[in-house]
UniProtKB/TrEMBL annotation, chain A:
<dbReference type="InterPro" id="IPR037165">
    <property type="entry name" value="AldOxase/xan_DH_Mopterin-bd_sf"/>
</dbReference>
<dbReference type="GO" id="GO:0005506">
    <property type="term" value="F:iron ion binding"/>
</dbReference>
<dbReference type="Pfam" id="PF20256">
    <property type="entry name" value="MoCoBD_2"/>
</dbReference>
<dbReference type="InterPro" id="IPR046867">
    <property type="entry name" value="AldOxase/xan_DH_MoCoBD2"/>
</dbReference>
<dbReference type="Pfam" id="PF01315">
    <property type="entry name" value="Ald_Xan_dh_C"/>
</dbReference>
<dbReference type="InterPro" id="IPR008274">
    <property type="entry name" value="AldOxase/xan_DH_MoCoBD1"/>
</dbReference>
<dbReference type="InterPro" id="IPR000674">
    <property type="entry name" value="Ald_Oxase/Xan_DH_a/b"/>
</dbReference>
<protein>
    <submittedName>
        <fullName>Carbon monoxide dehydrogenase large subunit</fullName>
        <ecNumber>1.2.99.2</ecNumber>
    </submittedName>
</protein>
<keyword id="KW-0560">Oxidoreductase</keyword>
From TrEMBL, chain B:
<keyword id="KW-0479">Metal-binding</keyword>
<dbReference type="Pfam" id="PF01799">
    <property type="entry name" value="Fer2_2"/>
</dbReference>
<keyword id="KW-0411">Iron-sulfur</keyword>
<feature type="domain" description="2Fe-2S ferredoxin-type">
    <location>
        <begin position="1"/>
        <end position="77"/>
    </location>
</feature>
<dbReference type="InterPro" id="IPR036884">
    <property type="entry name" value="2Fe-2S-bd_dom_sf"/>
</dbReference>
<dbReference type="GO" id="GO:0016491">
    <property type="term" value="F:oxidoreductase activity"/>
</dbReference>
<comment type="pathway">
    <text>Alkaloid degradation; nicotine degradation.</text>
</comment>
<protein>
    <submittedName>
        <fullName>Carbon monoxide dehydrogenase small subunit</fullName>
        <ecNumber>1.2.99.2</ecNumber>
    </submittedName>
</protein>
<keyword id="KW-0408">Iron</keyword>
């Protein structure tokens, strides 16, 4: 797949056809040899180590705190309580997505002052000479807690029987409806008058992102002048910079954020955390570097959780199975406080509840988010879209069972036809491109769907111990959240643009500066491929700079599968802008009209004059010496582009799998997994496949294993990797990926995002297979995760 | 107490607290930060190193338990001229890493696995890597990498 001539610029960049190749990653040698530096690896002479004392109670008032014994310990520099630091903060910790004007948002400070509202809520912190001493000191701090009743059930929380934040008077944070005004009433009419209606309740269990690198922070004050550098294992250095400046009252120009190598994020590092603010605040206070390393058990309690919704869905269809109406009621669990973008997560799902199907504007959506005495939730891989996709796809299977038709056939009857793209959806948003039947057909072939159905009929006879289940899910994903104007209508406090600067250096080597912040996605490789293709050079001659606000001052970072469809496209546009300028210089040198110049393979040529050519390197050097430039043209080849896309990008796909369930033990084995993810034009298929593999396993893990379990008192019972089941290699199957490429018409590269696609498709695919395997026994549904015990219990209940 | 460990062929002598874990000795005292810490329950394998040629989780041993012994870390895998070890090369060629945090431990565990079983089946590779968690790759390309290294 190559870029054709861009009609907007006339630049034809078929230099060396690097786009679409499986180029090995530039990032790998440093990571493979241990040379890469993660935040925790930094050697910072004279740094003090911070440790945080965390509430053992889910809900408790904080009485007196005795820190004297901790302070007396040799090597302890200071101990602070929430009250001690009250004056350190210019404002509470940020929530950047006030989805409604009347959203209730309790003041949230890096250390709790009067009340702890979840297990893991910070109540005091220590600065000491070593990490070990800091942790020893934590055990010497004596806190008088007055335990209160903990609220861990969402509907119980909504009853306001116990109010967590007294000043709010209620546990409900907001209710956000999506009302299609001109069609109000259509949804109810569909429910009353349609041939089929299914009404289901699904529980999206709480998940813990569990990036392999726990968080780590180093705050380093400059010795003079008040400048501060914050090194953090974050996905969002630019957002963190502005939020840290605001929260601590630091002039923003004095704040620099750097994220070195970051060991996975999945949304869990898309936040502004207490420990980041504490390290910066305390480093300013004591005038020394302050660092903090998160332990895994802290990571499970104090880094955000994901999902945590209750979904009530009603789906109506006519006698042929064509959808006629959809109603959704959500309860979102925010946990103890509102984190950075948490309130927006259920909203993002609202636009995807109809999946890839034609739905009349008979849609009625409302979500209510509520505070509970559990770890705050926020965006986790897919953020609202996996939940929505699960609900529609699982309900589609329920509808197919009700109608007695094949679930794949039901989906085909409802696919948005390819000819109708770009397609204005029931929500008013416009889907850019799609070919759902193709994706489904490719998956069907790879899985041998028909063959498996035949095998299933033979295998699933009465008395069979092992039953075969086949799962299908189709999905739409919306990513590259933009344009900024649309985000404004959702009350999101930031834009959706991304920045790129491209420089051709005097020696003709190329620097790309991006506002994205990769942590496993391989942007250094992909962005250099985009630039290499544009300039007709070797990707090895392109260097990509990122994740340091002093080097890349403009950016909105990496989350929500936005990097390529916004940031990567910006890189391509900045290359075009540089090429346009270079063209003027080359034309001037060759005494030609710039409009007569062609650029390919790294060489400018005058159309129709084969003897006249000038390589990029010569132009770069001329631009640098500035000895003979066109009148009025500034020296140097450097251009910056800020790209605000006109629309979201809409990846889509079909996943299929086969599972076998042992009815005696309840164990589910995934025999085969097929993923066909269409993310438009692929810059590097190697990286695309890797993203899909990882995404699928995270979705599969939600279906079968993972759950943040709390007891009635709000104690997290799965706070280590020994209790929280992140799958190992032996738990998961190989994943067959199938190809479907439907370019996006929205951007000149034709790309869409892919980071979350696998996760979005996987959980419903696996759960549909589980229920499919057991429906012959009378099992109608199982809530995630489908653990052996739950599956066995469901079989037993159906038998009795 | 003084603990002497030969790491990647170089003798290290450090005065450490008795409670110092091997992983902390390697990272903080020997200054070799390629070995990572991912959990506190010996579940994740990010800290895997070779002790006397066998893969161990360096967070489950005291440094004192390795006194007088040989440790190899990820920094000791590539040749002096920078040529990658065949296992590292296989990971690179098969996109067996994304964020790279689990990678040093994976490479150490996988190398040890092939030392014990030069021609494993896919299932044996998956079982052999059970003690090393990865959150990025879904293991597909890690397994592919190890099988490729075995047949290299």
């Amino acid at each position: 797949m190559t870029i054709t001539e861009d009609p907007a610029t006339g630049n034809n960049a078929l230099g060396n056809n690097v786009l679409g190749t499986r180029l090995l990653r530039k990032e790998d040698p440093a990571l493979l040899t241990g040379e890469a530096v993660f935040a925790n690896d930094m050697k910072v002479p004279g740094a003090l180590y911070m440790a945080v004392l965390r509430s053992p109670y889910a809900h408790a008032t904080i009485g007196s705190i005795d820190t004297s014994a901790a302070l007396a310990l040799d090597g302890v520099h200071a101990v602070y309580t929430g009250a001690d630091l009250r004056d350190t903060w210019a404002s509470p910790m940020p929530c950047a997505w006030p989805v409604t004007d009347d959203m209730k948002n309790p003041a949230h400070y890096p250390l709790a002052v009067d009340k702890a509202v979840y297990v893991g809520d910070g109540v005091a912190c220590v600065l000491a000479e070593t990490d070990a001493i800091a942790h020893d000191a934590l055990e010497l701090i004596d806190v008088e807690y007055e335990p209160l009743e903990a609220i861990t059930d969402l509907e119980d929380a909504l009853s306001d029987r116990v109010v967590i934040h007294d000043e709010l008077g209620t546990n409900a944070s907001y209710t956000w409806p999506l009302v299609i005004e001109e069609n109000e009433g259509d949804c109810e009419a569909a429910m009353q008058n349609s041939a089929y209606v299914v009404k289901e309740r699904y529980v999206q269990q709480r998940l813990i992102p569990m990036a392999m690198e726990p968080r780590a922070v180093v705050a380093q004050p400059e010795p003079f002048g008040g400048n501060m550098t914050l090194y953090s294992s974050t996905q969002v250095p630019h957002i963190l910079k502005v939020m840290t400046a605001l929260t601590l009252g630091i002039p923003e120009q004095q704040m620099r954020v750097v994220c070195p190598a970051v060991g996975g994020g999945f949304g869990s590092k898309l936040n502004v955390y207490a420990e980041e603010l504490l390290c910066v605040g305390l480093a300013r206070k004591v005038g020394k570097p302050v660092r903090w390393n998160e332990e895994r058990s802290e990571n499970a309690q104090a880094t955000i959780h994901g999902r945590a919704q209750i979904q009530d869905i009603e789906l109506a269809a006519d006698e042929n199975g064509k959808l006629t109406g959809l109603r959704v009621r959500l309860i979102g669990d925010m946990g103890g406080y509102l984190q950075l973008v948490a309130p927006g997560v259920p909203l993002l799902g609202a636009f995807l509840y109809a999946g890839v199907y034609e739905l009349p504007k008979a849609f009625d959506f409302s979500c209510t988010s509520v505070f509970t005495n559990m770890t705050p939730t926020d965006a986790y891989r897919g953020a609202g879209r996996p939940e929505a996709t699960y609900a529609i796809e699982h309900a589609m299977d329920a509808l197919a069972r009700k109608m007695g038709i094949d679930p794949l056939e039901l989906r085909r009857r409802n696919f948005i036809p390819t000819v109708k793209y770009p397609y204005e959806a029931y929500t008013g948003l416009v889907y850019d491109s799609g070919d759902h039947d193709k994706a489904a057909t490719v998956a069907e072939g790879l899985l041998d769907y028909a063959g498996l159905r035949a095998r299933q009929a033979e295998q699933n006879v009465p008395g069979a111990r092992k039953r075969l289940g086949i799962g299908v899910s189709t999905y739409f994903e919306m990513c590259g959240l933009a344009p900024s104007r649309v985000l404004a209508s959702l009350n999101y406090s930031a834009g959706g643009w991304e920045s790129a600067t491209v420089r051709v250096l005097p020696t003709s080597k190329i620097q790309v500066v991006t506002g994205t912040s990769p942590h496993g996605q391989g942007h250094e490789t992909s962005w250099s491929m985009i630039a290499a293709e544009k300039f007709g050079v070797d990707p090895a001659d392109v260097d990509v700079l990122h994740s340091d606000t002093a080097i890349a001052p403009l950016g909105l970072d990496t989350y929500g599968s936005r990097s390529l469809p916004v940031g990567g496209v910006a890189v391509g546009m900045a290359c075009d802008k540089v090429i346009d300028k270079a063209k003027q210089i080359a034309a001037h040198q060759m005494e030609a009209n710039p409009d007569d110049l062609e650029f390919s393979g790294g060489v400018f040529r005058v159309a129709g004059q084969p003897d006249k050519e000038m390589p990029l390197a010569a132009v770069a050097f001329e631009a640098f010496t500035a000895h003979d430039l066109p009148d009025g043209l500034e020296p140097n080849l450097e251009e910056q582009v800020t790209y605000d896309p006109p629309n979201f990008s809409w990846p889509f796909g079909t996943h299929m799998c086969a599972v076998e369930i042992d009815t005696e033990t309840g164990r589910t084995e995934v025999l085969q997994y097929v993923a066909v993810d269409d993310c438009g034009v692929q810059v590097n298929p190697l990286i695309v496949e890797g993203q899909v593999h990882g995404g699928v396993v995270q979705g599969l893990a939600q279906a079968l294993w993972e759950e943040a379990r709390y007891d009635d008192d709000g104690n997290l019972q799965s706070s280590t990797l020994a209790e929280y089941l992140v799958p190992a290699a032996s738990d998961v199957p190989n994943i067959t990926t199938g190809e479907s490429v439907t370019p996006s018409p929205t951007n000149p590269l034709g790309v869409k995002g892919v980071g979350e696609a696998g996760t979005i498709g996987a959980a419903p695919c696996v759960m549909n297979a589980v229920v499919d395997a057991l429906s012959g026994l009378g099992v109608t549904d199982i809530q995630m995760p489908a653990t052996p015990l739950k599956v066995w219990q469901a079989i037993e209940d159906a038998r009795s | 107490m003084e603990v002497t460990i030969t790491i990647n062929g170089e003798e290290q002598k450090h005065d450490v607290e008795a409670r110092t874990l091997l992983v902390h000795y390697i990272r903080e005292h020997a200054g070799l930060t390629g070995t990572n810490i991912g959990c506190d329950t010996s579940s994740c394998g990010a800290c895997s190193v070779h002790l006397n040629g066998e893969a161990v989780k360096s967070c489950t041993l005291l440094a004192a338990q390795a006194d007088g012994q040989e440790v190899r870390t990820i920094e000791g895998m590539a040749a002096a001229d920078g040529t990658l070890h065949p296992m590292q090369q296989a990971f690179m060629e098969n996109h067996g890493l994304q964020c790279g945090y689990c990678t040093p431990g994976m490479v150490m565990a996988a190398t040890s696995l092939l030392d014990e079983n030069a021609n494993p089946t896919e299932e044996e590779v998956r079982l052999g890597l059970e003690g090393n968690l990865c959150r990025c790759t879904g293991y597909h390309n890690i397994v592919k990498s190890v099988l490729a290294a075995a047949s290299a």
